[in-house]
Design brief:
Elements lengths: L1 E4 L4 E10 L11 E5 L6 E4 L11 E10 L2 E11 L14
Antiparallel strand pairs: 1-4, 2-3, 2-5, 5-6
Length: 93
C-alpha cells in the first residue's frame, strides 16, 4: 500500500514499481495504478495481488497532478524490513 497525504488542488496520484528490479522512467512496472480520489485525507494505492517479503526492494516512481501541473518523482527506492522483537514474559503468582 502506498499513501500520500491530501493537498489542495491534488487531482491524480500514480504509482509504478518493480520488486527487486530497477524501474526505468515511464516504465509501467510490475505494480502500477492511478488513484483519482482521496479518502480520509489520503490518496491510497493498494494491490492485494502483490506480496512483499522481508528484504524486498521496491524501485518506483510516482506521479501527481496538482493545480493542473504534472509532477514526478523518479528513481525512488524502498526496502521492506520487518523487524521481529521477542520479549520474554514472566508470570508472577
Amino acid at each position: 500500500m502506498m499513501r500520500l497525504t491530501d493537498a489542495p488542488g491534488l487531482r491524480i496520484f500514480g504509482f509504478h514499481a518493480n520488486i527487486n528490479k530497477a524501474i526505468r522512467t515511464n516504465e509501467y512496472g510490475q505494480i502500477a495504478g492511478d488513484t483519482y480520489l482521496a479518502t480520509d485525507d489520503r490518496w491510497t494505492f493498494e494491490d492485494s495481488d502483490v506480496t512483499i517479503k522481508n528484504g524486498d526492494v521496491l524501485h518506483y516512481w510516482i506521479y501527481v497532478q496538482a493545480n493542473g501541473i504534472n509532477h514526478r518523482k523518479n528513481n525512488q527506492r524502498w526496502t521492506y524490513s520487518r523487524k521481529i522483537i521477542y520479549v520474554n514474559t514472566i508470570s508472577l503468582i
